[in-house]
Every structure is written in C-alpha cells, then in structure tokens.
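Give me structure tokens for this 193-residue protein.
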Amino acid sequence: MASQKKPGETFSEKQGDNPSEKSSTPTQGPEDVLKPFQDASAKFAQAHLAAQESAVKKQAHTWLDLQDKIRKIEQDAYNAVTEATRKHLSNLGEQTGGSLEDAFAARAQAQIEYEKQVRQIYADTEAKLRELADKSANEQQGSDPVTHFTNRRQDAYQAYLADLQQAWSNTKNLDPQTVNAIASNILSTINIS
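Here you go.
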C-alpha cells in the first residue's frame, strides 16, 4: 500500500531513501522537456518549406514547358508566313508580258491568294494554341500546384501532430513555465506556416 504524504513533506522526501520507491526516470529539466517539441517544430518547418519549394518548382517547370510549346507554335507560324511572303514576292517579280489589265488582275489575284494563305496560317496557329491551352488546363487540373502544396502541407501537419503527441506522451514533469514555453513553441510554429 502506498504511503500517504505528510503535511510539509516534499515529493522527494516522500520517496525516502529506499531505491525501490524512487522514480526510475531521472528528473527532466525544462530544456529536456522542451527539446522534443522544438525538434518537432523544426521538422515541421522543414517539411513546410519543402512543400513550398516543390510547388514552386513544379509550377515553374510546367510554365516553362508550356512557354516552350507556345514559342515553337509561334515560330512555326512565323516561318510559314515568311515562306509565303517570300514566294509571293518572287511570284510578283516573275510576272511579265501581257496587257496591263492582265498583269493587274494577276497581281490582284496573287495578293488575294497570299492574304488567304496568311489568314489560314494564323487561323491554324490560333487553333493549335487553343488546343495547347485546353490540353495544358486539363493536365494541370490533377497536378495543380496549389493542390500539390496543400496536400504536402497537410502531410506535414499530420506528421507534426504525431510528433507532438509523441513528445507529450514522453513528458513527465511539467511546471507552469515549461507548459508556457511548450505552448509558445507550438503557437509560433503554427503561426509561421
């Protein structure tokens, strides 16, 4: 049967000199108690930062890939218009002979064909760009950087909560100052995220 505490008796006096009655764990100082909470906070901060970096890298990579595809489509259109212009100008220089009316009609017809060809190039380019934008939007729906970041941050929170639970379960001696330090540590960690 456990002995009753006498008035004025401290915990260590109550334990007595009998080694079997003394606590098997050494007394934890405030630094020892706070250390697991600080470690959990540091681990959470690193996971949160990694989630942010990953989201930014993923967004940047996706954006650069899209810009490369857009540039290629635009360059192809530019090359096609340049080639059409070159052919049109060389055809204008080759037209000879015939009446003035025939030359004027041929030149007008060549101009109409050239403009038609250029409009078609622009229409095709616009269709390709629209298709690329739709395809990119569909691909990004499942891999939205914000969703990616949110999922990784949620995982970091879950790991942080598990670490906090582990730290609390290992905590023995708590005085008000230590509890205040632990609470401050947790609040500052949550506020930086």
